[in-house]
Design brief:
Radius of gyration: 18 Å
Protein name: Glycosyl transferase 64 domain-containing protein
CATH class: Alpha Beta
Strand content: 5-15%
Number of strands: 9
Order of helices and strands: HEHEHEHEHEEEHHHHEE
Keywords: Signal
Number of helices: 9
Oligomer: single chain
Number of domains: 1
Helix content: 25-40%
Strand order of the largest sheet: 2-1-9-3-7-4-8-6-5
Structural class: alpha+beta
Organism: Emiliania huxleyi (strain CCMP1516)
Bound molecules: 2-acetamido-2-deoxy-beta-D-glucopyranose
Length: about 280
Amino acid sequence: MAYGFLSITLASLRILPLLAERVRLVFDGASISPGLRLAPHCSKEADAAAYAAYKRQSIDKASGELPHGAQVIELPHRACLSGSIRAGMAGVSTPFVAVLQNDMPVKRKFDLFALLALMETEPRVEKVHFSVGINRCHVRNSKVVCKAHRRMGRASNVSYAQEKGGGVLTRLTPVQQWFDGNHVARLTHYQRVLSIVPDGVFMEDRMFCKPWANHSLWGTFLLGAPDDGHYSGHLNGGGHRAQGCMQPPFGEGSGLVGGGGGGATVALHSLQPVYAMPVT
Ligand SMILES: *[C@@H]1O[C@H](CO)[C@@H](O)[C@H](O)[C@H]1NC(C)=O
Ligand SMILES: *[C@@H]1O[C@H](CO)[C@@H](O)[C@H](O)[C@H]1NC(C)=O
């Protein structure tokens, strides 16, 4: 397992220092609890000793990058992404949270203060992605999955806004799908999502087309204009996750091999809103 990913991802937060405040690292559990039904992709029995070594090596290697006061949460049993996020959100009270994946370093600096200020003044903006690939790909993908594959008919509220922006600093593209990857969201958004997705369930099975059915109810956006993107990298670029819109720019991640057993590692950050930057 590629224990160096965490260190690379944490080091990347230097370009967005606000993300390095109040970090919680959540390691999913290796052992499978008999009482919990798990999504197939997350139900593989892991080698507990190898996973324990992976966690230790990840933290050792990342120790120089671990933000001050970072909390490390190790789940006793497998809970998959939904359960890992639930554990990371427990007791969080800041209005905004950032969810990052351990294999997705931030690649491009952007004005996070302006983004939070925009979210503060625009309650309809609930979740904003820093995409790996190109935004337009996710917009198109929603249609493929929700209309063509899941036969959900026409999107509701596609016309809400082609772009919603707070001036030149922050431009957002609405996207009618819910997916993982690096993003900032309202805490209340996650409280709603977690009330729908139990631990162990693949989040996108329950959530993917919710914004297709009603975008204004979920407020899912992508940072930047439709032809923007590449805000995050994807170190685990050889895995199945690298398909489609998660594809990083050509060549990235080569030489780094990830995957293997063990649970997901998720880095969570709880953010305070910042009012200092006016958005006009
Ligand atoms: C479309 O979005 C607006 C603004 O958020 C909302 O008031 C309206 O109810 C939505 N309409 C549908 C059909 O979802
Ligand atoms: C979509 O959600 C909004 C609330 O944000 C609600 O006003 C509207 O009625 C919903 N539309 C549909 C078609 O359910």
